[in-house]
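=== Discrete structure encoding ===
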Amino acid sequence: MSGTVDRMTAQAADQPDPDEPYEVIHPGGGAAVIVPVAELWRLRAVERHASPEVLEEAEIEATLAAHDEWVAAGCPGARSHEDVMAELLGNALS
């Protein structure tokens, strides 16, 4: 052990979704969900027994859901194509 501890704070979502059965928190700027331990165990068991094809489909669905949430939040952190290209290419565009 290094003897250091990374500190983080957790903040509950301002407006919980009544259709969502779990509490969403935002530790250290990210998002996490508080679930009952039994749910976590069930999910791990499903992942162990699922076929590679089912796992791939689930990963695709989760990625699309995350993208939809990012878009609904106004694409936080998004930058224009021109801004990114200017940073990557420096003065090459001038």
The longest strand covers residues 23-25.
